[in-house]
Amino acid sequence: MLKKMNKTTKNNMITYGIVIAAFIIVQILVSAGSLSSLMQGLLVPLCVYVILALSLNLTVGILGELSLGHAGFMCVGAFSSAFFSKCMEGIIPSAGLRFFLALLIGAVLAGIFGILIGIPVLRLKGDYLAIVTLAFGEIIKNVINVFFIGKDSNGFHFSMKDAVALDMEPDGMVIVNGPQGITGTPKDSTFLIGIILILITLVIILNMVNSRDGRAIMAIRDNRIAAESIGINITKYKLMAFSVSAALAGVAGVLYAHNLSTLTALPKNFGYNMSIMILVFVVLGGIGNMRGSIIAAVILTLLPELLRGLSDYRMLIYAIVLILMMLFNWAPKSIEWREKHSFRRLTAKKKTAKEAE
């Protein structure tokens, strides 16, 4: 048991080490002026996508349920935190404190939505669950697009018609302007904060997976009937994993919202395509493999930008890389080759050879 515990801790430390090493390398490149402004602009979005991939892997890989509404939880976190930051900009002068509170609000609200959606949805299975979560993501996005919210000395004003219908005083401020979203959100997100949030996400997920609760969740994934027969509360553990996943997606949304001057609920930001893209990160990185999710999210986010010079062949190369990554991760021959040539297997062979001598 102790040996197994040490192995788990060692694997976790390697994962944390990879993230910290990546941060140090990027900082060195930025200091040396070797990183273009375009690549520097991608650093915070990279952190956002890594957190989203890790959080979705908790639902898809550990819980074993297919969710296509992850962008919806991200949207809840993004808009709730941006709304708070916009309202509190003049009241809370400290950017650090304001961002921390916005982070808590985004995570808590996304987690609450996760519980509210999870209670009815997690009774469904397979394709039905995927369809309902997809519908949730689309509903959230469209509801936000019809809201107009303003603030003046009399308080908040709401409308679902247009900004004029808010009927505010001349010095009033429109916070949410329907399809135009929220403008002027404080740009508090940084690469350092993104890395810290990735590490916190990893700590939460890896500790949860290796805990008693995590083993119960994986038991439900592997065999629901057997898990129920030994007294595991199916609803409790499924809801736990789903709500934690939603809260972490909300954290990614907060980081995303505070990296933009204008936040809009466009389909490309929080729609079906965003949910599918996050799912692609999870599948290509390996379902249940947190380290793989990080690597896949980084590669597939950077690749289109690195290939921008090859305008005619950019998406062709991107598609080929997707296919190769899928074959490497899931083809039976590739799995067999990786197991045969794994570092652990090679070191075990060397030890055996030395003992024989």
From TrEMBL:
CDD domains: TM_PBP1_LivM_like. It is found in: Cell membrane. Keywords: Cell membrane, Membrane, Transmembrane, Transmembrane helix. This is Branched-chain amino acid ABC transporter permease. It comes from the Bacteria. The lineage of its organism: Bacteria, Bacillati, Bacillota, Clostridia, Eubacteriales. The chain crosses the membrane at residues 12-30, 42-64, 71-93, 99-122, 129-150, 191-209, 278-303, 315-332. It is a multi-pass membrane protein. The keyword rRNA-binding does not apply. The keyword Ribosomal protein does not apply. It comes from Ruminococcus gauvreauii.
